[in-house]
Amino acid sequence: MSQLPEQLKNKLIHCLCPPGNGVFTVNTAKERKAQLHQTIFGQASGIEDLWKSSLDTLPDTSRAIILGVASDCGGGILRGANWGPLFLRSALLEKYPQLNTFDLGDVRVIPHLLSDKYLNDATIANCRKALYQDSQSEYYVSPLSITEDVLHDFYAAFPDKGIFGIGGDHSVSYPLTKAYLQAKKQQGKRTGIIHFDAHTDLLVERLGIDLCFGSWCTHILDDLPAPEHLIQVGIRSSGKPKSHWESTFGVKQHWAAEVKTLGVEKVIENILAQLAVQNIDELYVSFDIDAIDDSYASATGTPEPNGLMPAEAMAILRAIAAQYPITGADMMEIAPFTDSSGLGVISQEKTLKVAGEISAFLISEMNK
């Protein structure tokens, strides 16, 4: 049995918490949390110690490792994506019990914070005291900063494992992809990101904040081998045309309208041609659930019509996975309590069904 590095274990115990506990509440979703803990640990009480003990098995577990980041502080339309990790985990355990994965837990989230770089020293000290009972602690306090720091150490210890991140708003993908890309670069791997979304997320900043759900892609471009290694699929809600984004940032885009007019097979052909030119070794898939048409995925902060059908998204993913290893992925922007459709719990269930199918596929691919 392999050994979990002691320094990494201490960081995980301090900076993470048991699966589902990333949202700190007293009664909200209490029963759902208890059900999740019962399914994972076989009991609903005393899970803190069980979770800590489970970390020792990390070295010998699956390649695909789940990490929840229950933060929606980087969003800004309809909040509620902080519940995504809890609800998607429950859906996966119910519908895909055969999935081979290890659940690392949740990042400890102070819901008012985004990144430590926006905080003064006094606030950081206060938050360290709240999270770690030590105002002089060396650990970060904001979800984006904690996630990136933990994952740098994770990839250093386990270069052959990959993180499947569950958000949270899409700002969460910034530390997930940044740590992944930097680790792969050190390994000498040429990587690409396939980004499914209704929106480009290529703002430089939004209302003065540079790291948020609408700008995270811009700030990971320098960590890619080249900007065109970011391929975006499903775009349809943008104040500027495709030509602006491709010429300004050098990325490659396949808008949702192209899938309708050209057909999904032609779009797949175009994506694969781009990947072939780039000599890609491994891929990361970042999936914003609003890439899917709002008739199937309306439990999200920014549902958009005229999007990808679930079958179209799956066809693209299967074609990509058939030729390239997917070694990192995430599912973002599921907001289970958000109902823009008027369908209530039906909206929630439909969204989780689609997100569960896509997530289960990505996790299975990461394990290969």
TrEMBL record:
<comment type="similarity">
    <text>Belongs to the arginase family.</text>
</comment>
<keyword id="KW-0378">Hydrolase</keyword>
<dbReference type="Pfam" id="PF00491">
    <property type="entry name" value="Arginase"/>
</dbReference>
<dbReference type="InterPro" id="IPR023696">
    <property type="entry name" value="Ureohydrolase_dom_sf"/>
</dbReference>
<dbReference type="InterPro" id="IPR006035">
    <property type="entry name" value="Ureohydrolase"/>
</dbReference>
<protein>
    <submittedName>
        <fullName>Arginase family protein</fullName>
    </submittedName>
</protein>
<keyword id="KW-0479">Metal-binding</keyword>
